User: What shape does this take?
Amino acid sequence: MYNKFYQFVCICALLFAFVSCRTSEPPVLAPDPSVISYDPPGATTLTKELNPQHKRTIGFQSHGVWVSNEFDGGRLNDFYHISDNKFRAEIYPENAPINRSAWFAFQIWSDQSREIEIELTYQDGQHRYIPKISRDAYNWSVIDSSHYFHDRDSQSALLKIAIDEQPLWVSAQELFTSEHVEAWLDSLTTLSYITMNEIGKSKMGRSLHRLVINETDDPIAPMIIITGRQHPPEVTGSMGQKAFIEKIISDDLIATEFRKIYQIVVYPLVNPDGVNEGHWRHNAGGVDLNRDWKDFNQEETKAVRDDLLKLKASGVEAYYSLDFHSTSYDVFYTINKDIPTSVPGLTDRWLAGIQSRLPDYEIREEPSGVDPPIAKNWMYKTFNQADGVTFEFADTKPRDEIRDLAEAAALSLMDELIKIKK
Ligand SMILES: [Zn+2]
Assistant: This one.
C-alpha cells in the first residue's frame, strides 16, 4: 500500500515537473502581421464577460458628502472615506487585460460648502486623463493645475475640489455620450440634404446611426466614409470628427463645390454602449471593436460592415476613409507608401495641404501595412484599395486647436478630392 502511494506521488511529481518545464519554455511564435504591438497579448474579438459596474449613489451621512455614477458615461466603482477631508475613488475597467485608457466620471456634492481631497486609484490600469469639471455636464473646465497631482509612482492622482449642495461632475474628459451625439445629429438633419438612419442596434440595444450628406442628385455619388468613437474615452477624436463634418457642410466655397460631386457617409458613434457605460476601451461584448474588422464577431462592426456592403452593391465607390480616434499625441496613421491605392499620392497631397493651411503645425505621420483588423484596412480592401487614415487627436489638445486642425484637414481633403474629378 505504502509503495503504491509512494509510486503515485513520484509519478505526480514527475508529471508536474514535465508540465512546469513545458510551460516555462518561451513560446516560439511566427510574427503575426495582424497583431498590434500595444494590444494585450492573446487578445481576440470573441465576446468576453464584463465586470459589472453598479450604478448607485454612495452617501457619507456623518460627513454630508454624496457621490454618484448614475448617469450616462459614469464610471466609479467604489468610494471610501479615508480621513477628515480625504476620500478615495476606486475605478475599475469593464474587463481586463485592457489598454491604458482609464476613464472615470462621477458626480459629487455635499450638505455644506467644503473643500475635499479625492485620491483616484485604478485596478488593472493607471491614471491618464487630467480631470475636467462641470456644473451642468455641458460646459467644462480643466481642473486647476494647483488642485491636481498625478502621482506617477503609484499611478494614481490626487484632486482637491470645492463642493457644495449643487452636484459637480468630475470626468476624465468632457462627457460626449449618445445623448450629446444624437442632439448634434438632429441639428444637422434640419438641412435638406442630410439624412439620418438607424442601421442596427448595439449589443445592449442602442441605436447605431448613419448620417448621409448628399447634395448631389445621385444616390451612388462617389463617397468618403467617416467612422468615429470605436473607443469610448476618445472624446477629442469625436470633437475632431464633429468639426471636420461641420466644415464639410459649411458655406465655404470648397465645401459647396465638394458637395456637388461627393457624398459623405458617417457612422459617428460606433460604440454607444461603451461610451454610455463609461468603458475604458471595449464594447458591451468586452472587446476592442477596432480589432474586429476581420472576424466581425461584434454587433456594431457587423452593422457598419453590412451597411457599407449594401452601398457598395448599389454601385457606390469610396475614395477615402477617415476613422477618428484619440491618443496621447496628434498622429495620422496612414498606409505604407509602397502599398498601391486607388488614387496614388492622395494622402501625401492631403497632408501637404494641411501643412500649407497650418504652417506652424508639426504633422506626425506613421504609415503602416493593411493587415491589422482595423476599420481603415477593411475599407481599403473592400473599396478598391481606397486610401484612408486613422486620425488621432491628442487627449490634451486645446479644444480650439482641435477645431483648427479638423477644419484644415477637411478643406485640404475636399480640395484634393475635387481635383481628381476635374
Ligand atoms: Zn482609438
Summary: Residues 231, 234, 325 surround zinc ion (CB under 6 Å). The chain has nine helices and 18 strands.
